[in-house]
């Protein structure tokens, strides 16, 4: 079931809309497809896939950028409007024990990020790791390169507000061009949304399946 277009709040160019739903074996993706077509005002527009699998609309709807992510049974959809080719990325991770968090950081993150995580009290390392991971994934999903681009090529510092872009490499662009915002959804979830350009207001909606 998809909410009718009249129930979709207008999406301004200075906003990012976040939809939360249940994944339910892929049902969330089907619901998101209906929501996106409501934003586009076209119930027949196909969702295409980029080289690394990123979903997008072709012209004339390519000013509507979107991305989705799921962890366990929680799914998030991020949507924004802009010039043709505008992109947004989102990532969500469920908080669960990860005994190898520091080892994974050493393998995939920039050295300074791993050093910072090692400096944290053990009880805070997992939260720090997931905050960095979701920020990196959100940027690389917006960019379209995904994990194959290299998590270490987008590095961040951590502060009370979340992950702050510090140094990006390659065609992802300069770190200063990007906005990366944490999403406070629940104690057992860590999530982030990212886009290139000016700051935007975030609006969060829930769509129950």
How many whole angstroms does the radius of gyration measure? 17 Å
In the CATH hierarchy, the architecture is Alpha-Beta Complex
Q: Major β-sheet, in short? A: 4 strands, mixed
> Distance between the terminal alpha carbons, to the nearest Å?
7 Å
Classification by helices and strands: alpha+beta
Tell me the domain tally.
1
Specify the number of helices: 4
Give the overall silhouette.
globular
What string gives the helices and strands in order? EHEEEEEHHHEEEEE
Low-confidence stretches: 1-6
What oligomeric state is this?
single chain
Mean pLDDT metric: 90
CATH topology: Ribosomal Protein L22, Chain A
Percent of residues in beta strands: 25-35%
How many strands?
A: 11
- Spatial strand order of the main sheet: 4-5-1-11
Task: Say which CATH homologous superfamily is assigned.
Answer: 4'-phosphopantetheinyl transferase domain
Protein described:
With 209 residues, the chain is α+β, with helices and mostly antiparallel strands. The protein has a single domain, classed as 4'-phosphopantetheinyl transferase domain (Ribosomal Protein L22, Chain A, Alpha-Beta Complex), CATH 3.90.470.20. It is 25% helix and 33% strand. The strands form four sheets. The chain has a four-stranded mixed β-sheet, covered by helices on one side. Strand 9 and strand 10 form a beta hairpin. The longest helix is centred in the middle third of the chain and has 22 residues. The N terminus is likely disordered.
């Amino acid at each position: 079931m998809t909410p009718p277009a009249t129930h979709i709040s207008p999406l301004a160019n200075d906003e990012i809309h976040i939809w939360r739903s249940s994944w339910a074996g892929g049902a969330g993706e089907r619901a998101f497809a209906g929501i996106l077509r409501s934003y586009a005002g076209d119930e027949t527009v196909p969702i295409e896939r980029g080289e690394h699998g990123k979903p997008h609309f072709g012209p004339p709807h390519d000013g509507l950028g979107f991305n989705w992510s799921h962890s366990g049974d929680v799914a998030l959809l991020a949507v924004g409007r802009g010039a043709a080719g505008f992109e947004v990325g989102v990532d969500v991770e469920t908080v669960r024990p990860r005994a190898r968090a520091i080892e994974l950081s050493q393998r995939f993150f920039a050295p300074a990020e791993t050093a910072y995580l090692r400096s944290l009290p053990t009880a805070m390392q997992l939260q720090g790791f997931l905050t960095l991971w979701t920020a990196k994934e959100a940027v690389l999903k917006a960019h379209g390169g995904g994990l194959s681009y290299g998590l270490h090529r987008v590095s961040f510092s951590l502060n009370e507000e979340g992950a702050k872009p510090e140094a990006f490499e390659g065609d992802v662009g300069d770190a200063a061009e990007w906005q990366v915002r944490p999403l406070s959804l629940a104690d057992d979830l860590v999530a982030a949304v990212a886009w290139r350009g000016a700051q935007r207001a975030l609006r969060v909606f829930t769509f129950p399946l």
